[in-house]
């Protein structure tokens, strides 16, 4: 099940990353300025802030049907990008795409909370989130190939059509543990017995005001607000940075722009592994183990601050790749905490609401970059990314309050 979800996430992030790789070509062809591009990027980020709506729909309709509806939508919207002939058209399409693709993280967290005991949830969340970095990693070579072989319009048609194929597999194969015919009674008992009993679904619909009133929500939402601009920068701005500052052409983008996302793949597993090791060797609680993993990622992000100061473009790529690893280490950790702190029937809504905060951070950061890049360059923004993650770690340690009920060890995540 988590493999099926991971493939869906790969396609989700492949389609959303297509524009970033095609940007140098699209901007030149449609005569779009850097400032206008920042508005196009921001349209996606503004719409994806409606993740709580996606989460709520999936909590009410059920994960299987709700996620299928969103996946069909993002596939057709992605293909429609090939029809755009102005920055205004791209602005509208990116907004629609952001709304549909905001379903991915809430869907992943909801499935993880249903299918895995607490001790395996961090690893499962990391496995699902590999989809984000793999999809973004595949975008440079695939999109560059489509552009060089055909045109930039075909790149959107190709990546969008993959989503429709995946929906067929999703509707055919996915079921909840309670309904899956291939799941034995022993396996089902193993899943249920390993989950926090006080977080089991009470059968009610999630209450947004109640969630907003809880400090634990803000304890994970604010770190996402501070940390997610890193992923937005990697996805939307690094290809332009490599082109305009480091002098890369489209072929070099295809060769090197995927490396930060390969590093991010490793980071997806690092968060769960660090948390498991912290519990095993230091006998800390689950929540403190998650906080330690986030802090390690935040400290590694300091390397990104030096990207603008190195002369070699390959050293710059290496530091950006370190940022990809560090970001996914801390990002997967804090995303997983929605299933550690909230009831099963609230997880998708909470993950969506926290995602809204994260994308609000990306939106504001992207607008600042679009408005100030020509004046101050990229270096201050790389420094800012490192500083924001350190502040996020401080928030996670001071705001989140642990539940008194204990859960079993995370040894299985190692």
Describe the structure.
It contains 18 helices and no strands. The protein has 414 residues and is mainly α. It has a single domain (2-174, 206-401), classed as Growth Hormone, Chain: A, CATH 1.20.1250. 58% of the residues are buried. Residues 405-414 have low confidence and may be disordered.
Q: CATH H level: which superfamily?
A: MFS general substrate transporter like domains
Which residue ranges are poorly predicted, with pLDDT under 50 across at least 5 consecutive positions? 405-414
Q: Give the CA-CA distance, first to last residue.
A: 20 Å
Main CATH class: Mainly Alpha
Strand content: under 5%
Just name the CATH architecture: Up-down Bundle
What would you call the shape? globular
Helix segment tally:
18
**Number of spatially distinct domains:** 1
DSSP summary, beta strand count: 0
Based on secondary structure, the structural category is: mainly alpha
- Specify the helix fraction band: over 70%
Pattern of helices and strands: HHHHHHHHHHHHHHHHHH
CATH topology: Growth Hormone, Chain: A
Average pLDDT taken over every residue = 87
Q: Biggest sheet, in brief? A: none
Radius of gyration: 20 Å
Brief digest:
By secondary structure, the chain is an all-alpha fold. It contains 18 helices and no strands. α3 crosses α6 (104-115).
Secondary structure: elements and pairs:
Elements: H1 2-29, H2 34-48, H3 51-61, H4 63-80, H5 87-101, H6 104-115, H7 118-149, H8 152-173, H9 185-193, H10 208-212, H11 215-227, H12 229-244, H13 250-256, H14 259-282, H15 286-300, H16 313-341, H17 347-376, H18 379-399
